Amino acid sequence: MSLNHSPETHRNLIARVPRITGRDLREWFEMIEAGPAFLRCDERANWLADEHGLPHGYASAIVHEHERRRHALRYAV
Predict the structure, then answer these.
(1) What is the pTM of this model?
(2) Which partner from 7, 26, 60, 76 sits 20 to 30 angstroms from 13, CA to CA?
(3) Contact residues for 25 (Cβ-Cβ < 8 A; gap 6+)
(4) Contact 41/63 with Cβ under 8 angstroms?
(5) Under a CB-based contact definition with an 8 Å cutoff, are residues 29 and 41 in contact?
């Protein structure tokens, strides 16, 4: 299951994560990093949604943001 959000929808979902989930992004990123080593983003999003009872749209947005930030750090000069 792959959800593709527009950049605006993604920003809105990420902004609402703490209020909707009760956890900030840092906590979700730590859970992703401590969780199973899935190769695909949709597998991580499905695991996050199933394991923590998140709506799939939020799980997908959290995983996408985690990947976006991880890549930005990797390629920062």
Answers:
(1) 0.88
(2) 76
(3) 14, 17, 18, 62, 65, 66
(4) yes
(5) no
Token representation of residue 50: 């199933």
The span from the first CA to the last CA of the chain, in angstroms, equals 34
Q: Where are the domains of the chain?
A: 7-74
Structure tokens at 34: 């401590």
Q: What is the DSSP string of 34-59?
A: HS---SSHHHHHHHHHHHHT--HHHH
Instruction: Give tens-digit pLDDT for 59-68.
Output: 999 999 999 9
- Which token pair is 41? 């983003």
